[in-house]
TrEMBL record, chain A:
Gene3D superfamilies, A to Z: MetI-like (1.10.3720.10)
Gene Ontology biological process: transmembrane transport
InterPro entries: MetI-like, MetI-like_sf
Organism taxonomic ancestry: Bacteria, Bacillati, Actinomycetota, Actinomycetes, Kitasatosporales
Keyword vocabulary terms for this entry: Cell membrane, Membrane, Sugar transport, Transmembrane, Transmembrane helix, Transport
Protein family per UniProt: Belongs to the binding-protein-dependent transport system permease family.
Cell compartments where the protein resides: Cell membrane
Domain ABC transmembrane type-1: 120-315
Record GO cellular component, one term: plasma membrane
Membrane topology, as annotated: Multi-pass membrane protein
Protein name: Multiple sugar transport system permease protein
Main location: membrane
Pfam families tied to this protein: BPD_transp_1 (PF00528)
Organism: Streptomyces nymphaeiformis
Chain positions covered by the region annotation Disordered: 1-53
UniProtKB/TrEMBL annotation, chain B:
Protein name stated in the entry: Multiple sugar transport system substrate-binding protein
Keyword Ribonucleoprotein listed: no
One Pfam assignment: SBP_bac_1
PANTHER family tied to this protein: ARABINOSE-BINDING PROTEIN-RELATED, BLR3389 PROTEIN
Signal peptide residues on this chain, from the entry's feature table: 1-25
Family statement: Belongs to the bacterial solute-binding protein 1 family.
InterPro entries: Bact_solute-bd_prot1, SBP, SBP_1_CS
A Gene Ontology BP annotation from the UniProt entry: transmembrane transport
Keywords of the record: Signal, Sugar transport, Transport
Automatic annotation (TrEMBL), chain C:
Similarity-based family: Belongs to the binding-protein-dependent transport system permease family.
Organism: Streptomyces nymphaeiformis
Origin: domain of life: Bacteria
Gene Ontology process terms (BP): transmembrane transport
Pfam families tied to this protein: BPD_transp_1
Name of protein: Multiple sugar transport system permease protein
Gene Ontology cellular-component annotations: plasma membrane
Subcellular location: Cell membrane
Annotated TM spans: 27-53, 89-109, 121-144, 171-193, 225-245, 281-300
Main location: membrane
Length: 330, 447, 308
């Protein structure tokens, strides 16, 4: 299996996985193996790398990482249950006397005429159009890079990586001036258009398309007289779905978390995404006559990450298989 | 479809690049371009008659009501009030919009210290022809000095920040500490407080450019002297030295709490008494009421401690004005709004909401002076603030690029707060960095 | 990036039709990749081109714009504030990236080994921080780092100890590294884990027959199998480190004296551009930074590949 990033010398290092290991079957057999192993439990299956037994020490050691990743989230959740006063007065990692989570949520959603809801809807708009568009572009582009031989093909990814290496902060001003000339600043387009580019998404789709869409199938469709566009939609796209979902989710996270570009492009709070809105609430405490709302910031932060976490959990099955085939292997 | 839109995008790129390049190549022209034809009070009145839309960039919360009142008075005018960021964030946005030649507001809130950057770049309109001259005596001298240069008036003062000394009376009483009247007594009080309760600090300070320059101002220092494009920076004058010597004692003995202003910890410190005093502008009471509500009744206001015993010197901290960018679309309406918001009933309405006035009429009104602040135990705090406003040293100047200078304060002076570097060395480093920037920007510095 | 190897498009078409076929492929290929390239040109290439143009000029508050050729580049290459920042992110890179990728790799191997209780829970939980916006992550950690009322302060009070301030000048970089690690360890773990999942089971069967132990399997089968995944993760991490901005910029409010305006090259260009209105010089620093980043990413890729 060659991948765009392997050299010829490296290709024969591993045995060819062959088309048998299609994205779907690989993981599921593996998972099944794990499940049967634990189901058998005490019957002492032979200990091989294929039939391992759960180990308490390993679970504990890896558990340390789990504590590390979950602790700040626990902090966020616990503190979202506190009112402004106990936020500062009580121990950070435990609940204060009374739980105000619901009250905090209601106040977050209704504060300043419900501006948080407006920001949430803005963010949804940016995510749907931006991340959706980014996925479409990445799928089309990745497919082309994997399945068509055209002049300049090799240059595309090199240029993409090279351009990504230039720090975005300094490009912000040139981008701002350009967008301003085009009348795009302070409109949703200023956030959406830059979100349409996902370099990692392009890379992922390229590798994924190379693996998941057998060239023979495309040839067969062409011989049947199917046009290139039709072939793409009827033959390639269904095979590309797992990868597409993966790219969609990664683009969603990127758009959902986008901060720097909107900061420069959007001046009208009516078009803020959530991240900018939360930051504005944070800045509000620093204004003469402003009202500090640290409790709302914390609850707002919690509300900001809930939808994206939910999306990940719901679509788990798809994105994992997509990522599996998309990841680089030999 | 797809091909079409991508072609259009490519075309747009080409067009945008060309236009943008031209815009930069003659950036200074673009800034001047807007001022064709002068307008007077007549045109302003006509514009109000005709109506239209005014976009206002401001973070000052009291302007919301002013905007509504303005719209009610002039039904054909639509005011769009946008919070485009606080302080330097907004200035950045404003500079960018000015550079781009589009997207700038008609009216922008600009703090006094930052105004120089916009006047030197000629990016704000001279308001004198519109009728601003007649307000020359309406404003107190500190703010007025900050907005005019010779005959040109670059903004109208919106509020001011004569400094005062806020202290937690409960904490002072508990430890039997006298309210300091000089900065030497302040240092004594700092020691006594911290000794009585190691958790209590007289104040928090992590290095703040505005506070530092204000205290140097009060000490009679003149570190900045600006005359057109000639700039002099000297942080070794007497005022600066006096400040640095006193503050060095507080730093050496670790008598200042390392809590950042406006952080959650700061609000908490002000509430629980671990930060016992605050030396800042007269706009602070509104923040006390909203952010430190639980300590209502604990705090009092006193005049600033003095550098010389028996003195009355004061300085300004903060305060902002309303300016009209040259690239504004509707300058007449913009001026009309700025005038409405900063004078007459507009100003009074803002004072009623807790803003600190820059207008003499409001400052001298009996109702204002006799206002009792329940938060300060019924104290008539405005009398102290008004007294302070009257004693502000009048010949203070900021740099024409103070926004940048302030942004590197913590890179230089900040070292004195976290390392053995002396405050005087930090100020010297700040001076050097500011001199370098000034030279890079084409100013004649320290010649 | 010549290393991007050509992927053969399966069976070559008959020679006679090859030319025509090639032109058609070129047309269709560009048609598919065109929208991406067009938007990419708009949001990346055009601003970069514009930045290169800007870097040749100087714009002063007094005196306006003038052409200065490569002077800005000369200044950037001898600018101590730029080099300080670059050294700092260099150190960050050398420590944070290996630590983060190391943890990610170990967790991925642990989950893949099938020897964990609650494997799915592990996988999802470790990944969760990736979904937290950098703004929110820095906010949370900023609160927790507080020595007065934050978690560090709580611990000091509860245990009667004095932990060093995580945001003091000597520890700020490490504290930022911790936040970045927290945010991205799960993401990298998932990339490694996914690469591991598709290692063909026939290899494991062969290893089992040979009687290879678990460590042997890790060393001889799993690690080689995911080497390119490690390389690509390293490259993206290097780019990320060199562009370090969000976390220090938000923590700057909490530790203004430790996190200076030139703390990282990206903060420096931001400060130049936004506080100082020095767009031209900022563009120059950005271009220099981009070239350095690209060279290092390229070198890593070369090395990573040669080892195979």
């Amino acid at each position: 299996m060659t991948t765009p990033l392997t050299t010829a010398a490296a290709t024969d290092a591993g045995a060819p996985a062959g088309p048998a290991t299609t994205p779907g079957t690989g993981p599921s057999t593996h998972r099944a193996a794990g499940r049967t192993a634990s189901a058998r439990g005490r019957r002492k299956p032979p200990q091989t790398p294929l039939n391992p037994r759960p180990s308490i020490p390993l679970t504990l050691v890896t558990g340390l990482v789990l504590v590390y990743t979950l602790l700040p989230l626990a902090w966020l959740f616990i503190n979202a249950t506190k009112d402004q006063k106990s936020l500062l007065n009580s121990f950070g990692l435990w609940f204060a006397g009374d739980v105000n989570l619901w009250d905090n949520i209601v106040r977050t959603l209704t504060y300043d005429d419900g501006v948080f809801v407006r920001w949430l809807l803005n963010t949804l708009l940016y995510v749907v159009v931006g991340a959706g568009g980014a996925t479409v572009l990445a799928v089309l582009g990745g497919y082309a890079l994997a399945k068509y031989d055209f002049p300049g093909r090799k240059a595309v990814f090199a240029v993409v990586i090279g351009a990504v290496a230039v720090p975005g902060t300094a490009l912000a001003v040139p981008t701002f001036l350009m967008f301003s000339t085009m009348g795009l600043t302070n409109t949703p387009w200023a956030v959406i258009i830059p979100s349409l580019i996902s370099p990692f998404g392009l890379y992922l789709m390229w590798v994924f398309a190379a693996e998941a869409v057998p060239t023979e199938l495309l040839e067969a469709a062409r011989i049947d007289g199917s046009g290139e566009v039709r072939t793409f939609f009827t033959v390639a796209l269904p095979l590309l779905m797992p990868g597409t979902v993966t790219v969609l989710l990664f683009s969603m996270v990127a758009t959902w978390n986008n901060y720097f570009l909107p900061l420069i492009m959007i001046k009208d709070p009516d078009w803020y995404p959530l991240t900018l809105g939360l930051n504005a609430w944070n800045a509000q405490a620093q204004t003469a006559g402003g009202e500090p709302v640290f409790d709302l910031i914390i609850t707002g932060s919690l509300l900001t990450i809930v939808p994206i976490v939910a999306a990940f959990l719901l679509l788990q099955r798809y994105w994992q298989s997509g990522l599996a085939a998309g990841s680089v292997k030999e | 479809m797809r091909t079409h839109s991508s072609l259009r995008l490519l075309g747009a790129v080409a067009v945008a690049s060309t236009i943008a390049l031209t815009a930069t190549a003659c950036g200074s022209d673009a800034a001047d371009g807007g001022s064709a034809g002068t307008s007077g009070p007549k045109e302003v009145a006509a514009a109000l008659e005709k109506g239209g839309k005014v976009t206002v960039w401001a973070w000052e919360p009291t302007l919301k009501k002013v905007a509504e009142d303005f719209e009610q008075k002039y039904p054909k005018v639509d005011v769009e009030l946008v919070n485009a960021g606080t302080g330097d964030k907004q200035y950045t946005a404003l500079q960018n919009a000015i550079a781009a030649g589009s997207g700038a507001p008609d009216v922008a809130q600009v703090e006094y210290y930052a105004l120089g950057q916009f006047t030197i770049g000629k990016s704000v309109e001279d308001l004198a022809p519109y009728g601003a001259t007649k307000h020359a005596t309406s404003f107190t001298s500190g703010p007025w000095n900050a907005v005019h240069q010779d005959d040109a008036i670059y903004a109208l003062p919106m509020d001011s920040g004569p400094m005062a000394f806020f202290y937690n009376k409960k904490v002072f009483d508990k430890h039997h500490i006298k309210v300091p009247t000089t900065w030497d007594e302040y240092v004594e009080a700092a020691r006594a407080l911290h000794k009585a309760d190691p958790k209590v600090f007289i104040a928090n300070d992590t290095g703040d450019a505005g506070a530092t320059t204000s205290l140097i101002w009060q000490a009679g220092g003149h570190p900045y002297k600006t005359d057109g494009t000639d700039v002099k920076i000297d942080f070794t004058d007497d005022g600066s030295k006096t400040y640095a010597a006193t503050w060095q004692k507080l730093l050496d003995e670790k008598l200042l709490s390392p809590v950042n202003p406006w952080s959650d910890a700061w609000y908490k410190g002000l509430a629980d008494g671990s930060i016992a005093t605050l030396t800042t502008g007269a706009w602070m009471p509104a923040n006390f009421a909203s952010g430190v509500a639980s300590a209502s009744g604990d705090w009092r206001v006193a005049p600033l401690p003095q550098w010389k015993k028996g003195g009355k010197a004061s300085a300004e901290n903060g305060g902002s004005s309303l300016a009209v960018p040259k690239v504004a679309k509707n300058k007449e309406l913009a001026y009309a709004f700025a005038e409405f918001a900063t004078t007459g009933t507009g100003a009074s309405s803002r004072v009623a909401q807790g803003a600190f006035p820059a207008t003499r009429a409001d400052l001298e009104s009996k109702a204002f002076l006799d206002t009792e602040f329940p938060y300060f135990g019924g104290q008539k705090a405005n009398q102290i603030f008004a007294e302070s406003a009257a004693n502000v040293g009048s010949d203070w100047q900021y740099l024409p690029y103070q926004v940048y200078a302030n942004s590197i304060f913590n890179d230089t002076v900040g070292k004195a707060y976290v390392s053995p570097t002396k405050l005087s060395e930090g100020l010297k480093a700040w001076q050097d960095a500011s001199v370098k920037y000034g030279k890079d920007q084409g100013f004649t510095v320290n010649k | 990036m010549t290393l991007l190897s050509t992927r053969a498009t399966a069976a070559p078409p008959p020679r006679a039709r090859a030319r025509l076929r090639f032109r058609k492929e070129a047309f269709v290929g560009w048609g598919f990749v065109g929208p991406f390239v067009a938007v990419f040109a708009l949001v990346f290439l055009a601003p970069i081109g514009y930045a290169i143009y800007l870097s040749l000029f100087q714009n002063r508050l007094i005196g306006g714009t003038s052409f200065v050729g490569l002077d800005n580049y000369g200044e950037a290459l001898t600018d101590p504030r730029f080099w300080d920042g670059l050294t700092r992110v260099g150190m960050f890179l050398l420590v944070q990236v290996p630590v983060m990728l190391g943890i990610a790799l170990l967790v991925a191997l642990a989950i893949d080994s099938g020897r964990l209780y609650g494997k799915t829970f592990f996988r999802v939980s470790v990944f969760l921080p990736y979904a937290v916006p950098a703004v929110v992550a820095s906010l949370i950690w900023g609160f927790m780092y507080g020595t007065q009322f934050g978690l560090v302060g709580n611990i000091n009070e509860a245990l009667g100890v004095t932990l060093p301030n995580p945001l003091s000048p000597s520890l700020a970089l490490a504290s930022i590294g911790n936040i970045v690690t927290w945010e991205f360890v799960g993401y990298n773990m998932l990339i490694f884990y996914s690469a591991l999942k598709v290692v063909p089971s026939s290899l494991y069967e062969a290893a089992a027959i040979d009687g290879a132990g678990e460590w042997r399997v890790v060393w001889s089968i799993k690690l080689p199998a995911i080497r390119s995944a490690v390389v690509i993760a390293t490259i993206f991490s290097i780019i990320g480190s060199f562009q370090l901005f969000n976390e220090p910029s938000i923590l700057q409010k909490l530790a203004p004296n430790a996190i200076t305006s030139d703390f990282t090259p990206n903060l420096y260009t931001y400060s130049l551009s936004f506080a100082g209105q020095q767009h031209n010089y900022a563009a120059t620093v950005a271009i220099v930074m981009g070239v350095i980043t690209a060279i290092i990413a390229y070198a890593v890729q070369l090395r990573g590949m040669r080892k195979g």
